[in-house]
Design goal:
Elements lengths: L1 H8 L5 H53 L2 E2 L16 E5 L7 E7 L15 E8 L2 E7 L11 E6 L2 E9 L3 E2 L11 E8 L3 E8 L8
Antiparallel strand pairs: 1-3, 2-3, 3-4, 4-5, 5-6, 7-8, 7-9, 9-10
């Protein structure tokens, strides 16, 4: 009699209870998965943003090194036209740029013990092509026949590129072929970071041969 009564008191889960438990577990699993996915996406976005920030910091360092070491040295152009021999070339669509382009000569190109067949002068261009802020440079400050510039992509997703020049006030053009402005401002618009501008003082050195 006692065994029969014990069997009556023991019973398992009903089908409805099992279904409810499975549903609750599924909902909790889905919520946990969504939280995990959100954490992963946030981590990826943070990593990508950090990488983009490092890239733009590296680009600005290169730009600063170039613009703060500009020297007033006139360079011959591809056309070898004496009217185009200038210490600073700037213009819309210059050098295939989709916005403004600029070209100048800078000092400070490392040549340890003068072992390399070049000087410490480097001719540099900046231009905007296919959404890329490109830096071009030549092995020799005066272009020789057949010489092609080396191209370095500094930044992607760039929409605009422009420059201003300080000479008792800011101006958007520079027409003096023999001297440099007291300061140069570079402006560009990044899809990721918006409008960015930097101003650089320019050394007022004489024309270097």
């Amino acid at each position: 009699m006692q065994s029969r009564n014990a069997n009556k008191n023991m019973h398992g889960f009903t089908l409805l209870e099992v279904l409810i438990a499975i549903s609750i577990f599924a909902l909790m699993s889905m919520a946990a998965y969504q939280i995990l996915q959100g954490v992963i996406r946030s981590g990826e976005i943070s990593k990508r943003h950090s990488e983009e920030l490092v890239t733009i910091q590296r680009a600005m360092l290169i730009i600063e090194q170039d613009f703060t070491q500009i020297v007033a040295r006139a360079s011959r152009s591809e056309s070898d036209d004496s009217d185009n021999i200038r210490v600073l070339n700037i213009g819309k669509s210059l050098y295939g740029s989709e916005d403004e382009g600029i070209e100048f000569t800078r000092l400070g190109w490392t040549n340890p013990l003068n072992m390399l067949p070049r000087s410490n002068l480097v001719r540099v261009r900046y231009r905007l092509v296919d959404g890329q802020l490109q830096r071009q440079y030549f092995l020799y400050p005066d272009i020789v026949a057949g010489q092609e510039p080396e191209t370095q992509v500094l930044l992607d997703n760039i929409e605009t590129l422009s420059f201003r020049f300080w000479n008792n006030g800011w101006q958007t053009t520079w027409t003096d072929s023999n001297s440099l402005p007291a300061g140069i401002e570079i402006n560009f618009t990044s899809k990721n970071f918006g409008e960015i501008n930097r101003m650089f003082l320019v050394s007022q050195s004489g024309v270097s041969e």
